[in-house]
Design a protein that fits this description.
The protein has 183 residues and is α/β, with parallel strands linked by helices. The protein is built from 9 helices and 6 strands.
Length: 183
């Protein structure tokens, strides 16, 4: 099995992965995993984080897994005021993904147009990570139970995504939420 998705695996992988990235325990890691393309809208995630209160935004670290045409635009966007902490780790083989899911507090999939399913949501939930997804992500009605396994927001709305992120903060760091996600 390629994934190491149990709570015991989380205990083994979370801290070393975060330390390797220079992320401390008080920071909030938001993961984006996918192609850095306009359709997937990773830039919307950055815009939404910039709308969060200064107190929350300063604790957030974005981790981007994947590559694509928006890489340079995203790097410029995170540096523009107000800046957002971010790591761009490029494409990762499936065998390396578990460490990043365990390091994350939330996964965000902000797709703008019909995302047939959104397999990364299954993967994140399997690791106990709540997900924030746009209403264009096909799995949302089946997998995202607001306030339990994540939040759903209106596609192409940074403001609605920021609100969903704010609501999702109450889900992080709770073993019962991770257990519910895995179920």
């Amino acid at each position: 099995m390629l994934f190491r998705s149990t709570e015991a695996d989380r205990e083994l992988l979370r801290r070393p992965t975060r330390q390797k990235l220079g992320i401390n325990d008080s920071q909030i890691v938001i993961l984006f995993s996918g192609k850095l393309s306009p359709r997937k809208a990773p830039d919307l995630l950055v815009q939404a984080v910039k709308l969060l209160s200064c107190e929350v935004r300063e604790r957030v670290v974005l981790v981007f897994l994947g590559s694509g045409e928006l890489m340079m635009d995203l790097k410029n966007l995170v540096q523009a005021n107000p800046p957002v902490k971010a790591h761009f780790l490029g494409f990762q083989n499936q065998s390396a993904l578990s460490q990043f899911y365990h390091a994350a507090d939330l996964l965000v999939l902000p797709s703008l147009t019909s995302e047939t399913w959104g397999l990364v949501v299954n993967e994140a939930l399997h690791h106990g990570v709540p997900c924030v997804v746009s209403d264009k992500v096909g799995c949302a009605p089946d997998l995202i139970k607001p306030g339990v396994t994540g939040e759903v927001f209106e596609a192409d709305s940074a403001k609605d995504l920021a609100s969903a992120l704010q609501r999702a903060l109450r889900l992080i760091g709770r073993s019962e939420v991770r257990e519910g996600c895995r179920k």
